[in-house]
Please model this.
Amino acid sequence: MTNMNRKHWLNFIDGKWCDSEERFEVLNPATNQSIGTIAKASMSDAATALAAARRCADSRQLSAVRPAERVKWMHRIAQEILGLVQVGAHVLCAENGKTVDEAKDEFVEAARYFEYYGGMADKIEGVSIPLGNGYMDFTMYDPMGVSLQIVPWNFPVSICARALAPALAAGNAVVVKSPELSPLGMCVLFEAIERAGLPNGAVNLLCGSGREIGSYLAAQKAVDQIVFTGSVPTGQTILKLAAENATPCVMELGGKSAAVVFPDVDLDQLMASVRMGIFFNAGQVCSAMSRLVVHRSIYDAVVSRVKDLAQGLSVGSGDDGSDLTPVISARQLDQIQRMCQRAQEEGAVLVTGGETVSNCQGNFLLPTVFSNVRPEMNIAQEEVFGPVLVIIPFDDETEAMAIANGTDFGLVAGVFTQDLNKAMRCARLLRSGQVFVNEWYAGGIEVPFGGVGLSGYGRERGQEALYSYVRTKNVAIRVAGE
Model:
């Protein structure tokens, strides 16, 4: 049985748990104390994992079985994950800093991905295309083959499942590269997958250097698809490597998402969305509500309410149920603080926060809010990836749309108004892959997710995501005698 107190964790390659000579140390961000080590995958490990996935894909052990068998595998994985929620949540809390309840939710969501795409594994259906007498034409869907999936540290378990589940449902073999900062919860996830009895090589888990094995894998011809969630610079590096082999990619590269707030907003409803939108998971969310674009007539009132909200949040480690948990690393904390300092130098007003928690060894930043922010400021243009909200005023709808659309990102956006016509009009004008109306993070795994611009391309979640993991093939037949 999984032991959450273990001190050393392994990689999963070709159906076996494998050690290596080198190790990564994993720190608890609430204390910066070590909670254990994980085997550091070598280039040889990466080559072995890729070869195992290639062999599994080429053998068609996943794709040639009746789809109903893949359905059974998927549902079995979901059940195994649910059986490990308690243990996995405590591991994820310790390595990632999030609360135990949030970590439990992440494992439950991971199980839900396998349930959802398990229900679709036997429904990947082609169409018949009429070409007239003498012809029969139809489309069919083949799996991509080997899917390389590079997972970030902020939601490692659920984001891994988000890509892994549709890949397996479509009959692909997968190599997953876990994040160095938060890899242990993914090991628990793969223990659940192991118990489901997939063929050897179907799923492989490597924790190695992104610069080394991530780059190596992304450049290999044996990889048929790359799915990446992470920073823009890393994504651009992967895209350059993928271009050498014209490897198709799904890219989710973050955002600088804006919520546009009109005078008829329900302020209580807005505050609930602000709390979740920017302070959930310490703001380390690609689709965080990092910009609040507020009509000038209610600007001061909103700033005051947000200040009260931020100052009322408790700050502490994930295992004590605090409202705001630590950021992932000391390096990340330093980067956030430098961006906050630059914002003040550029003229933004620090409403609250901007400081670390005194007498604390962990990576804690107080909930931070800036007002009097101009759209061109760095803090309003670049992703902070921390609990930092900027509030920008606007005078009319045209200006609001220009501000909201005025970055290189385009992941999600929001509109807060009681006027349905206005909401629909803005939803059409906002340059983003998803628009929330009157509730940040409305929706769920059933709806497509992805961005435009520097937020990437391709879609994850929902039925639409499944078709990122297959190739469309057309068969055109000349029927003799007609």
